[in-house]
Design brief:
Elements: H1 4-11, H2 13-53, H3 78-96, H4 104-114, H5 122-136, H6 144-161, H7 166-184, H8 188-197, H9 209-227, H10 247-277, H11 285-299, H12 308-315, H13 324-343, H14 351-371, H15 382-396, H16 400-411, H17 417-431, H18 451-455, E1 474-475, H19 481-489, E2 495-500, E3 503-509, H20 510-513, H21 526-529, E4 537-538, H22 543-553, E5 557-561, E6 569-574, H23 575-606
Parallel strand pairs: 1-2, 4-5
Antiparallel strand pairs: 2-3, 5-6
């Protein structure tokens, strides 16, 4: 794991805390409020679609009412209701924000890596409404993806408002992912770690840890103050690990969770690929997926909705009242239902279903062991359910630490972390490079967000002020182009700045002049052809940031502004100046290392 970001964060902690504390708190507030709104929206949609129309109330966990198993009054309506929810969701998504289809967490990860942290402001709202309808009508999806996209979208918007650079805007998006998930699951510590862990399969975004912790705690506090502080699956404080011989069962569970996790990922993207290749209006596909899920739900009700209530049932003696065949089939039916609901273009998360699949897989292993009279089984399936939730999704999401912490917080039990480590470790080993999040990248060096930093790590420590130089030519807004062209032709950069009283108005290049006919240049002023909003950096920005913007805009130089947030020009920064400064500091560092080595050798010789 690359520790350089951690060391750099530590060295700059006081300044970074002053900067990120208010930003993280704001993101956390939006995460908490957004989680509450989304939570209530799902409840209202569930009451209307499944309750009023079908006469069915899905079971709920302890932290959300602890409702039991009830039969539907009008079961034949369920497939129609789920299809209706898919149709409404499809109309909303594909009319106003097609990128809101599918699961929101992966979209937020993609925004971090490939979109400079930009998320369209309308996407979170569309995601909230469409996902509430999809899940509330019985579609198999999770609450975490939309919540993550709400707070991540606000992080992106806040970054634009505050004119944060691409690096900081990405951190704001990662912070939002963790805060949203931590709030809706009442798991602030797990959410904070998730903000750093979920972006990569083999690495960690260390700079998102502290902002993620602040935002996640803030969001959790707001959500808990209204929705209650009880963990989702209640306080399972009586569960303990005191039988080392059971580690064999947890190892077997790790194997089962790893293989099932791979099946989950491949089924999800396989069925999603079939829907994408199917020549059918995109708006209709979620309705077809919903109809199929509703038909499955007539036989296997646990596939409907989030499924958290069925996980709760799997933790207590009610599990014994279910037929063995149903217990064994539920995890795989949930995989199929989630693939149909979300893979068809419906809107919802895949994090929650992944933990439900894992939990019910653990319950099925316990029930099967009970039927086979295996020795040393725990008296209830609860330990197997909790550990399997961690093992399955922690492995296939490549977020083992975050998921272990989250499930521990959701169940109010930390004593099962020891056997969970065995199961999660084996599951992660079996999963290998497979992942449920397509936008995850192996490591920071593979991300466009860090590629330059990894290639030239020294640039991240040097400021633009160390390499900038005064502009060789300054134009006024009313300078005629006939006076500009000869001067620009002599400059290596073939361009310069247009200023008024020290304030940057824009930049002019020879390419701008070429757009004006020669006969019109005498009457055309610099302000008429200049680029009014050029790419810039401030004196406090790193040379890494400057080089990234130069490459992104494909320009050879850019203006440097004072760090006070205004438009006062401090200098210009050509790309050759960045290279020259990099070489100078690299050479200086090498000379210093040679001097230190020589002094060490001399000291040893004298000793």
């Amino acid at each position: 794991m690359n520790l350089r970001p951690v060391l750099r964060w530590t060295a700059r902690t006081p300044a970074l805390l002053r900067k990120w504390l208010p930003i993280a708190v704001l993101i956390g507030v939006v995460a908490g409020v957004g989680a509450l709104v989304f939570y209530q929206a799902i409840n209202y949609c569930t009451q209307f679609f499944l309750g009023t129309l079908a006469g069915y109330a899905p079971p709920s966990p302890v932290g959300e009412g602890n409702g039991g198993i009830v039969a539907a009054v009008r079961p034949w309506v369920i497939p129609l209701v789920v299809a209706l929810g898919g149709l409404l969701s499809g109309i909303i998504v594909f009319t106003w924000a097609p990128e809101a289809e599918g699961h929101g967490t992966d979209a937020a990860i993609a925004a971090f890596h490939f979109q400079d942290g930009f998320i369209r402001p309308r996407v979170p709202l569309i995601k909230l409404v469409a996902s509430a309808i999809t899940i509330g009508s019985g579609g198999s999806g999770g609450r975490e993806g939309p919540t993550a996209q709400i707070s991540a979208g606000f992080g992106s918007l806040l970054g634009s408002w505050l004119r944060l650079d691409a690096h900081d805007r990405r951190i704001a998006v990662a912070t939002g992912i963790g805060a949203g998930i931590g709030a809706i699951f009442r798991a602030p510590l797990g959410g904070a770690v998730l903000a750093a862990e979920i972006l990569y399969t083999d690495d960690l975004e260390a700079e998102a840890l502290i902002p993620g912790l602040v935002a996640s705690i803030t969001g959790y506090s707001i959500f808990g103050a209204v929705a209650g502080w009880t963990p989702i699956f209640g306080e399972q404080a009586t569960l303990t690990f005191n039988e080392p011989s059971r580690l064999l069962y947890y190892a077997v569970m790790g194997v089962a969770c790893g293989l099932t996790g791979i099946l989950y990922a491949r089924s999800f993207y396989g069925i999603g690929g079939l829907f994408k290749r199917w020549r059918c209006p995109a708006i209709v596909k979620p309705a077809i997926g919903g109809l199929l899920v509703g038909l499955i739900g007539l036989v296997i009700p646990p596939v409907l909705g989030t499924g958290y209530g069925w996980v709760q049932i799997g933790m207590d003696q009610r599990l014994l009242g279910l037929p063995l065949w149903l217990v064994l089939v539920i995890p795989f039916a949930k995989i199929l239902a989630t693939s149909l609901s979300i893979g068809s273009g419906g809107s919802g998360g895949i994090f929650g279903p992944g933990m439900v699949i894992g939990g019910l897989l653990g319950a099925s292993i316990w029930r099967l062991g009970l039927a086979l009279h295996l020795p040393g089984l725990p008296p209830t399936a609860a330990p197997f359910v909790i550990v399997a939730m961690m093992a399955l999704f922690g492995g296939i999401a490549h977020a083992p630490l975050a998921v272990m912490l989250m499930v521990a917080e959701m169940s109010g039990n930390l004593s099962l972390l020891a056997p969970a480590m065995v199961a999660v470790g084996i599951s992660s080993w079996i999963v290998g490079k497979n992942t449920i999040y397509e936008s995850q990248l192996p490591a920071r060096a593979d991300s466009p967000a860090h590629r330059l930093e990894m290639a030239f790590p020294l640039l991240a420590t040097l400021r633009a002020a160390t390499a900038m130089r005064p502009p060789e030519l300054v134009l006024r807004a009313d300078t005629p182009l006939t006076e500009v062209q000869p001067a620009l032709a002599e400059l290596p950069s073939r361009g310069t700045v247009v200023m008024d009283d020290g304030q940057l108005l824009g930049v002019v290049s020879l390419a701008d002049l070429a757009k004006v006919e020669p006969a019109e240049q005498a009457t055309t002023r610099a302000e008429q052809v200049m680029t009014r909003d050029p790419v810039t950096v401030t004196t406090g920005d790193s040379l890494e940031t400057a080089l990234a913007r130069l490459i992104e805009r494909r320009v050879s130089w850019l203006p440097v502004l004072d760090a006070d947030g205004g438009r006062r020009l401090a200098g210009i920064l050509p790309i050759e100046a960045i290279v020259r400064t990099y070489r100078a500091h690299s050479s200086s560092g090498i000379r210093e290392m040679k001097d230190v080595a020589q002094e060490a050798i001399s000291a040893v010789a004298k000793g």
